[in-house]
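Need a sequence for this fold. Nothing fancy.
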């Protein structure tokens, strides 16, 4: 690696974690605060019910909290691997229950975006939150990537 780029791995993990956390925080708040389909949690539950995911009301809460709280925690790097793993599962379900039949491209509601977000979350699961995180500062994570 060129010398001028040495040591930037920890910055790369931080940038990834901040972007991913912010994105999921926004997705989750959209569901929790009512912007999703105009109906908030009821809209999420209605969508889940149409997809055959039952009990839809409980899963709507699980989905929305996983995205919002998980997004906040990934952003901060707090219990980051745990929440990132939940987001990987969230995106896998979204791909197979909602998007896969639409093909790849996001413009046609395909699986491009949930796949990208799921892979980013998987990177956090595999690398950890990096050195600039609550997990590292509190000793939850020791050493490792970034």
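Here you go.
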């Amino acid at each position: 690696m060129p010398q001028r780029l040495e040591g930037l791995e920890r910055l790369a993990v931080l940038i990834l974690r901040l972007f991913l956390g912010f994105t999921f925080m926004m997705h989750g708040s959209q569901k929790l605060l009512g912007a999703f389909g105009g109906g908030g949690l009821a809209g999420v539950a209605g969508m889940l019910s149409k997809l055959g995911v039952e009990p839809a009301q409980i899963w709507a809460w699980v989905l929305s909290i996983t995205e919002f709280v998980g997004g906040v925690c990934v952003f901060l790097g707090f219990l980051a691997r745990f929440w990132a793993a939940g987001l990987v599962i969230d995106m896998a379900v979204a791909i197979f229950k909602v998007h896969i039949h639409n093909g790849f491209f996001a413009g046609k509601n395909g699986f491009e975006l949930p796949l990208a977000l799921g892979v980013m979350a998987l990177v956090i699961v595999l690398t950890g939150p990096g050195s600039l995180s609550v997990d590292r500062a509190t000793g939850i994570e020791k050493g490792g990537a970034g």
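For context: Residues 11-131 form one domain.
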